[in-house]
Amino acid sequence: MRTLKVSASPIHGLGVFAARAIAQGEEILTVDDRRVVDARSPLRPELSEYDYYLDYLAKGKKVLLQNPERHLNHGCESNTCLRTRAGERRLVALRDIAAGEEFTLDYSLNRKLDKSLACRCGSQRCRGTIFLDYFKLPAELQKDRLPLLEAWFIEEHGLGGGTAAG
């Protein structure tokens, strides 16, 4: 049975939606991180490769998100997170997700970039602005989100003492 579908999103452009009910903790998809972007292999706009499809990993590594993960929209009360398991990044449900519901990620997690975007997630706890920097989240929200951070991010930014799930 199909797990997801890509279609028009009320948040922004295209989104990724549950094609069936998803249980908390279920792995939804494995992220394809093969397309590394660097000086030897830059983005190719003629192939629809744009910086807003980049994801940032340990030690400054940048990867181009593929379909469908490139269409995951931000949610201030996200219902998924990324977890590295057995060397692969996987999208995991943070709670039960109903069929037809859009999967969302908190774009502030595992990032420390000097960029921000207007937020259109529509959640009751919408922050209005998406800071692509975990450290720009309010202290209480940083504490709440600490278990969702990847181990590499915790290590690179000296956040020891916290625990990353997964």
How would you characterize this protein structure?
This protein is mainly beta and 166 residues long. It has one domain: Beta Complex (Beta-clip-like). The protein contains two helices and eleven strands, in the order βββββββββββαα. The protein has helices at 139-145, 151-156, and strands spanning 4-8, 14-18, 27-30, 54-56, 62-64, 73-74, 80-85, 88-93, 104-105, 112-118, 129-133. The strands form five sheets. A three-stranded antiparallel β-sheet has the order 3-8-7, with no helix packed on it. The chain has a two-stranded antiparallel sheet with strand order 1-2. It starts with a strand and ends in a 10-residue tail after the last helix. Residues 162-166 have low confidence and may be disordered.
